């Protein structure tokens, strides 16, 4: 593995360009496996609302390297991923390291106590290597299985040792990291029923100060040394045992449903499988008339009669990684809502939602990873991304795939948060409308994107990561 890497930077442009990809791609015949769902009509939104971005964003080239890219929520975790690249790691190694790191610096959104969905794909062979979903069936107890999913992916495809992969996150937890705006904003989601440890910790935080997480560092060190089994049946079992019975902890399992695939509008589209938002996402992209300029009405028409319209607003993080061997990885992880179950354990992490909404009989995960590759010219355009909420992805992906704005403007364009009863505007990305919308609570879901065109790579971090 080549040690040369790139930085997806968190500055004004937040983008990196990487060139000199050296390996030709193979051509294979693709299958057409679309997903069909019933789409009704929708009357909650009567006005056509076009989502747009009023100010163009200037882009400034970043570092040059050999086809590797990282798009993630925090620069400190991107640097952790770069560290793994420099040690000879591949995209799976890096994506796992970055995701674990985000559990340290964004503990209100993801971490050991959460779950996730991941997709691994190799573009040289055009083969899907892995789809994993750690969210259990809706209406059941949600045992935290994110670390199990990461460990499984790493065991299957990683190049470097598990110990090396966890080292950056452990170091950051021990040495400290800056309190982000996103973490401060999570106070707005604090429930009166939150445990005292979480309340006291959150109220002690100040924006921009450096804090340490020694308990979390020790927990990760145990997982580094003993493996993920320590969480469920080993020395770390006592804390989780307060919330989950021994049978649930002794029998963790991952959903290995096949990935969803579809062919449409010049692309091969790949996402996660049944039980996630993946099938509905691909169906919407293939069968819709979405373009680079579309209305909320068009999006709403897709949601009537679907469970997606009644989904709560989820939270989480998105990690997208590519390497010079054209391994593409997308990991979408979270705790459910911001702050999960509102229980901070003595082991230093927040437990995610303890129970899925029982009426969501079909969907376990509201988000999905996403990969798109052009059909006619395999090197023309490839997209690696994901999102924690289908409703956000449908406001961004059509622009990236078929619009003329480009990745940066598409990601930074205003979005509307859509719920069963209301439309909500993002505070820092307000839509241009003839009337005002109530504000959506921060922090907002991000969509971090890697785009490969020929031998050029653009890795872009959504500024909503704060």
TrEMBL record:
InterPro entries: GGT_peptidase, Ntn_hydrolases_N. The chain crosses the membrane at residues 37-57, 94-121. One of its GO terms (molecular function) is glutathione hydrolase activity. One of its GO terms (biological process) is glutathione catabolic process. GO terms for cellular component: plasma membrane. Pfam families: G_glu_transpept. Keywords: Membrane, Transmembrane, Transmembrane helix. The keyword Membrane applies. It comes from the Eukaryota. This is Uncharacterized protein. It comes from Nezara viridula (Southern green stink bug).
